[in-house]
Amino acid sequence: MQADEIDPQARAAVERQDRLPLPHSRRGLKLLRLISRGAMRIRNRNPPVVGATVDRSIPGPAGDLDVRLYLPDADGPFPTVVFFHGGGFVLGSIATHDWLCRHLSRESGCAVLSVDYRLAPEHPFPAAVEDAYAAVEWAAANPDAVDGNGDIAVAGDSAGGNLAAVVALMAAERDGSASGGDGTAAGDSPNHAVPEVSYQAPIYPAVGVEEDQRSVREHAGIVLSKANMEWYDRCYYASEIHERNPYADPTNAADVSGIAPATVVTAGYDPLRDGGKRYAEQLVHDGVPTRYENYEDMVHGFVTFRGVDRAREAIADVGDDLADALGTD
To answer: What residues have CB less than 8 Å from 69, skipping those under 6 apart?
Structure first.
């Protein structure tokens, strides 16, 4: 499940990242977010070129949500990939994943809608889930606003991979029972439609993780320590009761047979590896077409590492799967 050693480029990226440890306090978290915002302004100065980007706000369940739309350099309309960033549900933003979303749009030929959902601990579960699903509803109901052709996929990394999988489950469970011919549920506003998710691409998703898994035992401390994972969980779930909710972790679902086809990506030296593999196996068991890819010499977070060649390879692979599924190739 893992190579003999971590890719040298990935190891160097991890060493740079480890210079700024995760604080386990609200005050420290606020400071880290401020530092991150400043760093991202510098980091994103020469981004990969796409056809266009559009920053706007969309309606959310507790107020407007900031989103950024990335459009390919081609004539639309395009399929829409709604993307959710990683960061343990407490960190991350549109800015931290700008490089990744630009490359994903370029590689897939899709419009990518990146969503700034509410973060814990200020907004614990289910706030992020509610925001994520609302964003997919909005994209489905407003294809003209995203230069969309009506096809919707979801993607995300780490915590965002969790949200992508959860939204795919929610859409599968809710689709059709209250919808009319135009896909708008009875009583809904034009900003909300029952979304049909055609594909999902969770990248090293935070799902199905158990303390006794081999990947946790052997690789906790590489990017993600046990203390960090436990703190993320405390911030996000707030109560152990929520951890058993399928909308907190889709591996808790009894049946995922109606969910969208998937590409599931994991990394060999990632503590979350076996949880992601467990999700892929659950999809296959329930008859969902699934491609599982484990990058054996990679670590958690690697698709956001700009100086790592394998990051671009993985983004291209996911982009190809989205293109195949959504018909842009």
So the answer is: 53, 54, 55, 56, 111, 112, 113, 114, 146, 147
